[in-house]
Amino acid sequence: MSILWEKSGTWRWLVKRTKESKPFFIGFATICGVVPGVIGYGVMQFTNTRNPELEARLRQNARPDSLMMGKVNQERLAEYLGELQRKEDTNDRYVAALRGETLTRNPYVRIQPIPNQSNTEAAPEQKAKKEVK
Predict the structure, then answer these.
(1) Is pLDDT at 38 greater than 90 in this prediction?
(2) Where in the sequence does UniProt note compositional bias of the Basic and acidic residues kind (predicted)?
(3) For residue 79, how far is the Cα from the chain centroid?
Protein backbone atom coordinates (compact mmCIF):
# COMPACT_ATOMS: atom_id res chain seq x y z
CA MET A 1 0.00 0.00 0.00
CA SER A 2 2.86 2.38 0.67
CA ILE A 3 3.81 2.17 -3.01
CA LEU A 4 0.87 4.43 -3.80
CA TRP A 5 2.27 7.43 -1.91
CA GLU A 6 6.00 6.72 -2.00
CA LYS A 7 6.14 7.32 -5.76
CA SER A 8 3.67 10.20 -5.79
CA GLY A 9 5.27 13.61 -6.35
CA THR A 10 2.44 15.36 -4.55
CA TRP A 11 2.85 13.15 -1.52
CA ARG A 12 6.60 13.75 -1.41
CA TRP A 13 6.04 17.52 -1.71
CA LEU A 14 3.48 17.43 1.11
CA VAL A 15 5.81 15.47 3.41
CA LYS A 16 8.70 17.81 2.59
CA ARG A 17 6.60 20.92 3.28
CA THR A 18 5.29 19.59 6.62
CA LYS A 19 8.85 18.78 7.74
CA GLU A 20 10.18 22.20 6.76
CA SER A 21 7.37 24.49 7.91
CA LYS A 22 5.62 24.23 11.26
CA PRO A 23 2.82 26.66 10.24
CA PHE A 24 2.18 24.57 7.11
CA PHE A 25 2.00 21.43 9.24
CA ILE A 26 -0.46 23.05 11.67
CA GLY A 27 -2.57 24.34 8.78
CA PHE A 28 -2.59 20.96 7.04
CA ALA A 29 -3.48 19.15 10.28
CA THR A 30 -6.27 21.66 10.95
CA ILE A 31 -7.70 21.19 7.47
CA CYS A 32 -7.54 17.39 7.88
CA GLY A 33 -9.50 17.68 11.14
CA VAL A 34 -11.91 20.53 10.43
CA VAL A 35 -13.06 19.61 6.92
CA PRO A 36 -14.27 16.09 7.84
CA GLY A 37 -15.87 17.52 10.98
CA VAL A 38 -17.79 20.14 9.00
CA ILE A 39 -18.88 17.57 6.43
CA GLY A 40 -20.01 15.19 9.18
CA TYR A 41 -21.93 17.92 10.98
CA GLY A 42 -23.62 18.90 7.72
CA VAL A 43 -24.62 15.31 6.99
CA MET A 44 -26.03 14.91 10.51
CA GLN A 45 -28.04 18.11 10.21
CA PHE A 46 -29.34 17.14 6.78
CA THR A 47 -30.39 13.62 7.83
CA ASN A 48 -31.80 14.58 11.25
CA THR A 49 -35.54 15.02 10.91
CA ARG A 50 -37.56 16.40 13.80
CA ASN A 51 -40.88 15.42 12.35
CA PRO A 52 -43.44 14.92 15.16
CA GLU A 53 -45.76 12.95 12.87
CA LEU A 54 -42.99 10.50 11.98
CA GLU A 55 -42.01 10.06 15.65
CA ALA A 56 -45.65 9.48 16.64
CA ARG A 57 -46.12 6.88 13.88
CA LEU A 58 -42.92 5.06 14.86
CA ARG A 59 -43.93 5.02 18.54
CA GLN A 60 -47.40 3.76 17.64
CA ASN A 61 -46.02 0.85 15.60
CA ALA A 62 -43.37 -0.12 18.19
CA ARG A 63 -43.38 -3.63 19.62
CA PRO A 64 -44.33 -4.05 23.29
CA ASP A 65 -40.89 -5.33 24.27
CA SER A 66 -39.28 -2.25 22.67
CA LEU A 67 -41.60 0.03 24.61
CA MET A 68 -40.86 -1.83 27.84
CA MET A 69 -37.08 -1.65 27.32
CA GLY A 70 -37.34 2.06 26.52
CA LYS A 71 -39.27 2.65 29.73
CA VAL A 72 -36.80 0.59 31.80
CA ASN A 73 -33.80 2.39 30.28
CA GLN A 74 -35.45 5.75 30.93
CA GLU A 75 -36.04 4.80 34.59
CA ARG A 76 -32.45 3.60 35.03
CA LEU A 77 -31.07 6.74 33.46
CA ALA A 78 -33.28 8.93 35.66
CA GLU A 79 -32.10 7.03 38.75
CA TYR A 80 -28.45 7.37 37.76
CA LEU A 81 -28.76 11.06 36.93
CA GLY A 82 -30.55 11.64 40.23
CA GLU A 83 -27.66 10.01 42.07
CA LEU A 84 -25.22 12.25 40.20
CA GLN A 85 -27.25 15.36 41.05
CA ARG A 86 -27.32 14.39 44.72
CA LYS A 87 -23.56 13.69 44.45
CA GLU A 88 -23.96 10.21 45.91
CA ASP A 89 -21.07 7.80 45.89
CA THR A 90 -21.82 5.28 43.12
CA ASN A 91 -18.74 3.11 43.59
CA ASP A 92 -20.85 0.59 45.48
CA ARG A 93 -22.57 -0.16 42.16
CA TYR A 94 -19.30 -1.56 40.81
CA VAL A 95 -18.41 -3.33 44.06
CA ALA A 96 -21.82 -5.01 44.04
CA ALA A 97 -21.36 -6.13 40.43
CA LEU A 98 -17.98 -7.67 41.26
CA ARG A 99 -19.58 -9.61 44.11
CA GLY A 100 -22.41 -10.82 41.87
CA GLU A 101 -25.01 -8.63 43.56
CA THR A 102 -27.57 -6.30 42.06
CA LEU A 103 -28.75 -2.91 43.23
CA THR A 104 -32.34 -2.40 44.26
CA ARG A 105 -34.64 0.43 43.26
CA ASN A 106 -35.05 1.36 46.93
CA PRO A 107 -32.62 4.24 47.59
CA TYR A 108 -32.32 3.36 51.29
CA VAL A 109 -31.30 -0.24 50.63
CA ARG A 110 -28.64 0.06 47.95
CA ILE A 111 -27.42 -3.51 47.58
CA GLN A 112 -29.48 -6.66 47.33
CA PRO A 113 -27.57 -9.95 47.40
CA ILE A 114 -28.43 -12.79 45.05
CA PRO A 115 -30.86 -15.07 46.91
CA ASN A 116 -29.40 -18.35 48.13
CA GLN A 117 -30.98 -21.61 47.08
CA SER A 118 -33.61 -22.77 49.52
CA ASN A 119 -33.32 -26.12 51.30
CA THR A 120 -36.09 -27.61 49.16
CA GLU A 121 -34.16 -26.89 45.98
CA ALA A 122 -30.89 -28.17 47.41
CA ALA A 123 -32.43 -31.37 48.75
CA PRO A 124 -32.68 -33.24 45.40
CA GLU A 125 -29.04 -32.41 44.67
CA GLN A 126 -27.96 -33.73 48.07
CA LYS A 127 -30.01 -36.92 47.57
CA ALA A 128 -28.34 -37.49 44.21
CA LYS A 129 -24.89 -37.06 45.76
CA LYS A 130 -25.75 -39.52 48.52
CA GLU A 131 -26.98 -42.11 46.01
CA VAL A 132 -23.76 -41.84 43.99
CA LYS A 133 -21.61 -42.49 47.09
Answers:
(1) yes
(2) 124-133
(3) 17
**Rounded to the nearest 10 degrees, how much is the dihedral formed by the CA atoms of 74, 80, 85, 87?**
180
Residue 39 CA to residue 32 CA, distance in Å, equals 11
Same domain (yes/no): 93, 67: yes
Residue 14 has, within 13 A of its CA and on its CB side, a CA count of 12
DSSP letter assigned to residue 116: P
| Cα-based torsion angle of the residue sequence 82, 106, 68, 51 in order, rounded to the nearest 10 degrees | -20
CA 109 to chain centre: 27
116 inside domain: no
Q: Is residue 115 part of a domain?
A: no
Q: Are 49 and 43 in contact (CB under 8 A)?
A: no
pLDDT digit string, tens, across residues 100-122: 776 665 555 555 555 666 655 54
- Kindly state whether residue 25 falls inside one of the protein's structural domains: yes
Question: Is residue 43 located within the same domain as residue 13?
Answer: yes
Q: Look up the domain containing 29 and give its range.
A: 9-47
